[in-house]
Structure formats: C-alpha cells, structure tokens
Amino acid sequence: MITHTGGCHCGRVRFEVVAPARIEVAECNCSICIKTAYLHLIVPAGRFKLLSGSESLETYTFNTGTAKHLFCSVCGIKSFYVPRSHPDGFSVNARCLDPGTVEGMTVAQVNGREWEKEYPRGRGEYTR
What is the pTM of this model? Predict the structure, then answer.
C-alpha cells in the first residue's frame, strides 16, 4: 500500500488515498457515471483523507439520497464521493489521481444501471 494524492481541476480540492500501486477500479454504466467517465477506486473511509478544499465542496444527491456526490463548486470536478455501494467509504475518481504513483490499473465493468441486481445485499464489498 502506498499513498496517492489527487484533486480537482482547479486545485482547490486536494486529497490523499492509501491504495496499492497497481489499482483495481470499476467503470460503472449508471446514469451519472457514464456521463462523467468516472473510474471508481473504492476505499474504506480510514484510507481517505481530505487535505484541502472542504469549503469548496458542494453535494448532489438523487434517487435514494444515499450517495453523496461531492464536487468542486469552482471547477465542477467530482474527484471523490461517498457511494451508495459503500456508504462507509469513499470512491475516488482514478482519473483525478496525480501522475507518478499508479504503476498499473485494471478496469472492471459494473452494471450500475441494474443496481439492485449488481448489489443484491444493498452494498458492495471492499476488495483489498
């Protein structure tokens, strides 16, 4: 495990996340992820730290209201959020990680359009 850093486009929102150098991410086909090209690096809350920009974050919710879609109010980028599948953790957008620490990335497809079928227990499991 290593510490990766990242953030939004304008740099106001900065974070760090502890994850392997070779990361496994999910590409979801739900209505919001498909439009934003989000690549999910899902980690428990204890492996995520917001370094700066809390005052610039806005929250968007829809459907069940469980997911807290956090985005920078200045540049509009959603670099991380609290996902419905892991409400006790964070999903970091792998596309928002700073270059230099990711040694490899495996992308798995997730059928978020049929969320209840994909997560029959109402939530996902952490992988590592």
Answer: 0.87
